[in-house]
Amino acid sequence: MAAQFLARGWSVVGTVRGDARTGLHDLADDYPGRLEIACLDVSQPDQITALHQRLAGRRFDILFHNAGVANADPRQSAGTVSTDEFVRVLVTNALSPMRVIEGLQDLVAADGLIGVMSSGQGSVSNNEKGGADVYRGSKAALNQFMRCYAARHAAGPRALVLMAPGWIRTELGGPGAPFTLEETMPKVVDVLISQQGRPGLRFLDREGATVAW
Ligand SMILES: NC(=O)c1ccc[n+]([C@@H]2O[C@H](COP(=O)([O-])OP(=O)(O)OC[C@H]3O[C@@H](n4cnc5c(N)ncnc54)[C@H](OP(=O)(O)O)[C@@H]3O)[C@@H](O)[C@H]2O)c1
Asked: What is the rounded CA–CA span in Å between residue 172 and residue 163?
């Protein structure tokens, strides 16, 4: 996503965990002065506060929360997964995005966009086949929390987007996923840009089509 925004002339602040060099650092070398890298483990509230302090006084057109995890064995049902694993997935995918959004929202332009990477698996009404219970539940919880957030800000001018990007070949998506990041992310970024200036919450796929709640 950072590469896509940079290629379109945007400036980006992206976050990583830990001190290791990442692909984001390589990208920063390709775009001197336009990609700033900060450290953030989204499950650590003090790190969200520190990032807010670091960015104080700045104005962002888009705040987008991408970080997410799946449980190690997606075949485990909600009734058989360990409590630790359940908590890890729910905290990362549902609680942390809301903390990031509520913690950083005042850095976003009054008519800016706040987005989160959800998933088609977060759709309750499209869940006919089951499976990946914990991941599905975490994204459904995220969607519900965003609906609460949107209701609290119903009169606000900001666009709010829950993105269902499709099944993509990443570490989380696995090698069997049908789509690459390279073919998916341009579409995801097109959709985000198209939603700027459109107040209210939408659950959208990478083509910009509405996903059923
Ligand atoms: N791939 C798919 O098919 C698919 C489909 C629908 C939705 N999604 C969603 O897309 C998002 C990105 O997933 P991906 O497929 O790109 O998976 P990925 O390759 O496993 O990447 C996940 C990213 O999230 C970061 N992350 C995890 N926990 C974090 C934490 N506590 N603090 C900060 N960063 C954290 C990871 O950082 P590290 O590098 O430090 O581990 C990594 O950069 C997730 O929200 C996922 O649920 C993916």
From this structure: 16
Instruction: Give the model's pLDDT for residue 72.
Output: 92
The 10s digit of each residue's pLDDT in 28-42 is 999 999 999 999 999
Q: Which ligand 1 atom sits nearest the alpha carbon of residue 22?
A: 39
Strands (E), the chain: 12-16, 35-39, 60-65, 108-117, 159-164, 200-205
Question: Is residue 198 one of the residues assigned to a domain?
Answer: yes
Q: For residue 62, give the amino acid letter.
A: I
Would you say residue 67 lies in a domain? yes
The total of structural domains in the chain comes to: 1
> Which residue is closest in CA terms to ligand 1's atom 47?
68
Return the structure tokens found at 84: 């630790």
- Looking at residue 175, what is its pLDDT? 96
Per-residue pLDDT tens over the stretch 40-91: 999 999 999 999 999 999 999 999 999 999 999 999 999 999 999 999 999 9
Mean pLDDT of the chain: 97
Residue 208 Cα to ligand 1 midpoint, Å, equals 21
Query: In 10 A of CB 28, how many CB atoms?
Result: 19
Q: Which atom of ligand 1 is nearest to the CA of 116?
A: 45
